[in-house]
């Protein structure tokens, strides 16, 4: 399990003597064999800027910095995999923050790269290597010529071709879960927002947020184009927009028009679910699936990260309960971080939240964040830290009827609404 590191030109090396280590919260930890899997297809190795690699001398067990102009390396995992640890590193400039990605510990073992992670879902549908870029360009061109006045398609073409967003790409390839962003505003100020950051945040938003209010006709065009098969999913609430439920009037009208023309496929919303009245209206318009983003079921932690404006975690719970009562297949987009999500108090609170709301699916999503910045923002641990691998085992035992996954699924039996 040898240390992996990179030079300033991006060349990656494995150390002949030092072992790779990892981080859980602020603690450097030794990796175990059963916490490693081969680097998945579609994963990317990246250098961590403003860092030096930290390895372990296997003879003495001591941690040591690697001398020279080198930086630590992490892996960015595709959907379907849950990270157990963050890479081990030491920052050379603590004022600098990492780009907003979810970094996973990586080592060299048995002639190949291994990561500290486990498979939590079928990775194939969302494997980036399964997106044919040449075909995507053809389909983008076709759709833009078919709908030359649709500003949403123009916006999504940039997301698909420039950012290589798979959900946006699906919209043009007419497969799996497609995107239909609707909102330029948000009722939360998420610390790790990927589409809008304050000038003094120290983060650079990796995506450009939607800058206009779509017309209902533009939304309907995209929905009808995508909902052509029984298993197709069209989703409000994308990384390139704010909170979709702030545009509830547009969503409700679009849903009514679409369902008057087809019953095929599933309508999903990715939301913070804080605007309970808006979520009720969207649910009543015929919503099939709801995925609610959360980072914790503890108020202090939730509020520190989301910075909610005019709503509370209780509003989120209320929205989920109402949707479930109407037959909506509900899930959470659970933003997870080693050394935080696996804290005793976090686990207990989330199990209670899941049971109270009747959730069907927990989507384990690796939080894109700078570790030090995040850990300085949230409350310190109150109890034992179990480890991410143990956390998954606990959830499967305590919540046997809840699916543990990584992305939105078509329900096993279509819900009657």
What features would you describe in this structure?
The protein is of the alpha+beta class and 417 residues long. The chain folds into two domains: 2-119, no CATH class; 177-405, Aldolase class I (TIM Barrel, Alpha-Beta Barrel). It is 28% helix and 25% strand. The protein contains eleven helices and 20 strands. Strands 1, 2, 3, 4, 5, 6, 7, 8, 9, 10, 11, 12 and 13 form a 13-stranded antiparallel beta sheet that branches. Strands 14-15-16-17-18-19-20 form a seven-stranded parallel beta sheet. Helix 4 (216-226) links the parallel strand 14 and strand 15. Helix 6 (276-284) runs parallel beside helix 8 (313-325). The chain is globular, with a radius of gyration of 22 Å. The relative contact order is 0.12. This is Pyruvate-formate lyase-activating enzyme. Keywords: 4Fe-4S, Iron, Iron-sulfur, Lyase, Metal-binding, Pyruvate, S-adenosyl-L-methionine. Residues 181-347 form the Radical SAM core domain. GO terms for molecular function: 4 iron, 4 sulfur cluster binding; lyase activity; metal ion binding. InterPro entries: Aldolase_TIM, Organic_radical-activating, rSAM, rSAM_sf.
List the domain count as a whole number.
2
Give the uncertain stretches in residue-range form.
Answer: none
Main sheet, how many strands, which sense, barrel? Answer: 13 strands, antiparallel
How many whole angstroms does the radius of gyration measure? 22 Å
CATH homologous superfamily grouping of the largest domain: Aldolase class I
Query: Helix count?
Result: 11
Distance between the termini: 51 Å
Total strands: the figure is: 20
Q: What number is the mean pLDDT?
A: 93
Class inferred from helices and paired strands: alpha+beta
Strand content: 25-35%
Enter the CATH topology name of the largest domain: TIM Barrel
- Helical content, roughly? 25-40%
Shape: globular
- Report the CATH architecture of the largest domain: Alpha-Beta Barrel
CATH class of the largest domain: Alpha Beta
């Amino acid at each position: 399990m040898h240390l992996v590191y990179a030079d300033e030109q991006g060349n990656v090396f494995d150390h002949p003597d030092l072992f790779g280590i990892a981080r859980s919260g602020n603690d450097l930890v030794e990796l175990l064999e059963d916490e490693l899997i081969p680097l998945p297809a579609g994963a990317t190795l990246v250098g961590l800027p403003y860092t030096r690699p930290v390895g372990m001398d296997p003879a003495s067990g001591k941690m040591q910095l690697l001398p020279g102009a080198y930086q630590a390396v992490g892996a960015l995992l595709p959907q379907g995999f849950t990270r157990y640890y963050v890479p081990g590193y030491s920052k050379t400039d603590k004022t600098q923050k990492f780009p907003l990605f979810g970094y996973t510990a990586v080592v060299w073992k048995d002639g190949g790269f291994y990561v500290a992670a486990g498979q939590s879902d079928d990775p194939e549908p969302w494997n980036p290597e399964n997106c044919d870029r040449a075909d995507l360009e053809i389909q983008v061109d076709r759709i833009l010529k078919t709908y030359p006045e649709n500003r949403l398609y123009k916006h999504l073409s940039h997301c698909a071709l420039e950012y290589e967003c798979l959900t946006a790409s699906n919209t043009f390839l007419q497969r799996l879960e497609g995107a239909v962003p609707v909102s330029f505003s948000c009722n939360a100020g998420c610390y790790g927002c990927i589409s809008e950051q304050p000038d003094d945040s120290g983060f650079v938003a990796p995506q450009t947020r939607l800058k206009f209010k779509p017309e209902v006709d533009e939304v309907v065009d995209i929905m009808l184009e995508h909902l052509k098969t029984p298993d197709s999913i069209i989703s409000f609430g994308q990384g390139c927009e704010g909170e979709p439920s702030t545009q509830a009037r547009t969503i409700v009208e679009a849903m009514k028009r679409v369902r008057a023309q087809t019953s095929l496929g599933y309508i999903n919303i990715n939301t913070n679910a804080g605007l309970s009245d808006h979520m009720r209206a969207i649910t009543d318009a015929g919503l099939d699936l709801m995925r609610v983003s959360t980072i914790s079921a503890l108020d202090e932690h939730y509020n520190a990260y989301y910075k909610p404006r005019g709503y509370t975690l209780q509003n989120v719970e209320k929205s989920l309960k109402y949707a479930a009562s109407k037959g909506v297949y509900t899930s959470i987009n659970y933003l997870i971080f080693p050394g935080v999500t696996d804290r005793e108090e976090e686990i207990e609170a989330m199990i209670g939240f899941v049971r109270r709301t009747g959730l069907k699916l927990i989507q384990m999503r690796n939080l894109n964040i700078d570790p030090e910045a995040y850990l300085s923002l949230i409350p310190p641990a109150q109890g034992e830290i179990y480890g991410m691998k143990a956390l998954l085992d606990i959830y499967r035992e305590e919540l046997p009827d809840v699916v543990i996954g990584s992305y939105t699924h078509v329900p096993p039996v279509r819900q009657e609404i």
